[in-house]
Design brief:
11 helices
């Protein structure tokens, strides 16, 4: 009899704990909009996309146009820009493409004054910028001591400084109008350092520091930043980097799979519209965002709670990932040493 009463008592408290937890989650869900930015509407909004002539940037341009935005595409290659414009024209059947798409050919990493003048011209044509997406980037994989020293500067110039220049040119207008979205497209290699990405990872990590500091500055002006961490994406840039990527880097990168530009673009654009600070893809992306969240801005109570609850678990899982990566590097070294010894013996 006493055992039955004890079981009933413990079961009752278990159900009460579950009910309290459910109520807590519901309250968080209801309160989240209080700190979440108001979603923006892309229809007729002016969206500038750097690096928009290929890869993820091009996919973002297509989807922004499909949602009715006026899109300014910024890149260096004039021929690629014209090809992209022709492709976008197929999504604008009832309007002249010139009224919805404009092209800017400028090197974002070099002359800030030239960048500023070009983007101000874009604003005079299409109106104030509602959303700036910094997607211009490149990668030079290779072992640290084998990479040309110039590649380290090149990565910082293209992946980091180009975003600084474009953002600096647009921020004043956004402040005047009291709203805006700014996106920095980093990488999962901007969340953890990977073999072969000493130059690339450093430049992508830099974007996070910029994003977190800048968000604190512009939040009072109703300007919200999104920091995107795409995994390997099947773009022309990815196919090019495969030619020089060390075998260790290839094997490590394969653990996250290969995404399509369209899939990545749709997630980034949706997170931008909602004003989410982190934009991640896949389960690995979610884990990395949680385990590296640190002092990052909070745009959702639900997301913050999930980070607090799962951070310890994801850290444990990350240790297994790191061990797996170390084993890959060690195995490749043994294979390399064996080949070198074989050559010496022959």
């Amino acid at each position: 009899m006493m055992l039955d009463v004890y079981c009933l008592f413990t079961n009752m408290w278990g159900w009460i704990a579950l009910a309290v937890f459910i109520v807590f989650i519901i309250i968080l869900y209801l309160l989240s909009p209080l700190i979440s930015p108001q979603p923006i509407i892309l229809h007729n909004a002016h969206v500038i996309i750097t690096g928009g002539s290929s890869g993820i940037g091009k996919a973002l341009a297509v989807q922004a146009v499909q949602q009715g935005a006026k899109v300014t595409i910024v890149a260096r290659d004039k021929a690629k820009l014209e090809e992209t414009k022709a492709e976008l024209a197929s999504f604008i059947p009832d309007e002249k493409v010139e009224e919805r798409v404009q092209l800017i050919s400028v090197d974002l990493s070099k002359d800030y004054v030239a960048v500023e003048n070009a983007l101000h011209t874009a604003e005079s044509n299409f109106g104030p910028v509602e959303c700036l997406i910094n997607c211009a980037g490149t990668s030079s994989p290779g072992r640290f001591e084998e990479l040309p020293i110039t590649d380290f500067k090149k990565m910082m110039d293209i992946n980091y400084l180009s975003a600084v220049h474009a953002t600096r040119a647009i921020i004043p207008s956004m402040k005047i109008h009291g709203r805006g979205r700014i996106v920095f497209v980093s990488s999962q290699a901007g969340q953890l350092g990977l073999f072969g990405f000493t130059a690339y990872s450093a430049s992508k990590f830099a974007l996070r520091g910029l994003a977190e500091a800048l968000q604190m500055e512009v939040k009072p002006y109703n300007i919200h930043l999104t920091l995107a961490f795409p995994p390997d994406t099947n773009t022309p840039g990815f196919q090019e980097e495969q030619k020089t990527k060390p075998i260790e880097t290839k094997l490590i990168s394969e653990t996250s799979g290969l995404f399509t530009p369209e899939n990545v673009a749709s997630i980034i654009l949706a997170d931008t519209v909602r004003g989410r600070f982190f934009s991640t893809m896949g389960l690995d992306g979610l884990m990395l965002a949680c385990v590296t969240c640190g002092f990052s801005p909070v745009t959702s109570l639900m997301e913050a709670t999930q980070q607090v609850i799962t951070m310890g678990l994801f850290r444990i899982i990350s240790l297994f990932y790191l061990d797996h990566f170390d084993r890959i590097v060690h195995r490749c070294k043994l294979e390399k040493d064996a080949k070198e010894n074989s050559k010496k013996m022959s």
